[in-house]
């Protein structure tokens, strides 16, 4: 993709919340990990590649980068189209769900206080969220929005700039090592969720997203301790 616009500077929006939450999508808000594994398995078999090796690479890179690393230049466009078709079909008819707590935490935050930062494409995120009845924010940073994907900090920096919030005032909620690395590299507070053990580098960990709801909401708007007379 050429002619990318520069990341806007902080204050580019009319409303500049004091703090903001930046959510990863797959594995954090939407439980579609097995879908991703299945899609990449079908793709790998079709292209004569190791299923495990392809999926391990896909966990660290965006689809276009995954395909570029695995196939010669003249085969990439068709192969990427095949992957996109599998993904688009899954959005409409796949079996996936929102993690417990996803709807509650998103609706507990003001629309301008949170964003989605994903390695997927915006139309798929919107399709899944609508199907699951989840609210959508004004800011979604997807695979096409930035020149570098996670673990590079660029996606999270772009989301912070779009919201008009300083990096130090952003909380990243992630489930993956590459996402945690990206948030840390952006100078943000990073919490990991939906894993038995903390992701290395996360500042705080919750075994489930539902367990993190109160802490996330309180992070954006800390509650005042009662004063004694």
Number of strands: 8
Relevant CATH superfamily of the largest domain: HAD superfamily/HAD-like
Name of the top-level CATH class of the largest domain: Alpha Beta
Rough outline: globular
Distance between the termini: 62 Å
Order of helices and strands: EEHHHHEHEHEHEHEEH
As for the number of domains, it is 2
Can you describe this structure?
- This protein is an alpha/beta fold and 229 residues long.
- It has two domains: 20-32 and 97-220, HAD superfamily/HAD-like (Rossmann fold, 3-Layer(aba) Sandwich); 33-93.
- The chain has nine helices and eight strands.
- The protein has helices at residues 33-46, 51-58, 63-70, 73-93, 102-107, 122-132, 154-163, 177-185, 209-220, and strands at residues 20-23, 30-31, 97-98, 114-117, 140-141, 170-174, 189-193, 204-206.
- The strands form two sheets. The chain has a six-stranded parallel β-sheet, sandwiched between helices.
- Helix 1 packs across helix 2.
- The longest helix is centred in the middle third of the chain and has 21 residues, at 73-93.
- The protein starts with 19 loop residues before the first strand and ends in a 9-residue tail after the last helix.
- Residues 1-16 have low confidence and may be disordered.
Summarize the structure.
The chain has 229 residues and is an alpha/beta fold.
Features:
229 residues, two-stranded antiparallel sheet, globular, Rossmann fold, 9 helices, alpha/beta, 2 domains
Secondary structure elements and pairings:
Elements: E1 20-23, E2 30-31, H1 33-46, H2 51-58, H3 63-70, H4 73-93, E3 97-98, H5 102-107, E4 114-117, H6 122-132, E5 140-141, H7 154-163, E6 170-174, H8 177-185, E7 189-193, E8 204-206, H9 209-220
Parallel strand pairs: 1-4, 1-6, 4-5, 6-7, 7-8
Antiparallel strand pairs: 2-3
Helix pairs in contact: 1-2, 1-4, 3-4, 4-6
């Amino acid at each position: 993709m050429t002619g990318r616009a520069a990341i806007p500077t902080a204050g580019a929006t009319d409303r500049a919340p004091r703090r903001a939450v930046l959510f990863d999508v797959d594995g954090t808000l939407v439980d579609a990990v097995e879908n991703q594994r299945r899609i990449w398995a079908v793709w790998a078999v079709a292209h004569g590649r190791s299923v495990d090796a392809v999926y391990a690479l896909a966990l660290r890179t965006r689809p276009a980068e995954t395909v570029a690393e695995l196939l010669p230049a003249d085969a990439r466009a068709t192969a990427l189209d095949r992957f996109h078709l599998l993904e688009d079909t899954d959005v409409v008819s796949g079996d996936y769900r929102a993690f417990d707590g996803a709807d509650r935490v998103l609706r507990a935050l003001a629309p301008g206080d949170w964003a989605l930062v994903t390695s997927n494409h915006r139309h798929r995120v919107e399709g899944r969220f609508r199907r699951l009845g989840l609210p959508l924010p004004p800011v979604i940073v997807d695979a096409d929005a930035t020149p570098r994907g996670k673990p590079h900090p660029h996606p999270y920096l772009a989301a912070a700039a779009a919201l008009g919030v300083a990096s130090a005032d952003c909380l990243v909620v992630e489930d993956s090592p590459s996402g945690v690395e990206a948030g840390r590299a952006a100078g943000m507070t990073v919490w990991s969720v939906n894993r038995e053990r903390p992701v290395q580098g996360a500042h705080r960990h919750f075994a489930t997203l539902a367990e993190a709801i109160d802490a996330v909401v309180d992070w954006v708007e800390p509650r005042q301790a009662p004063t004694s007379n």
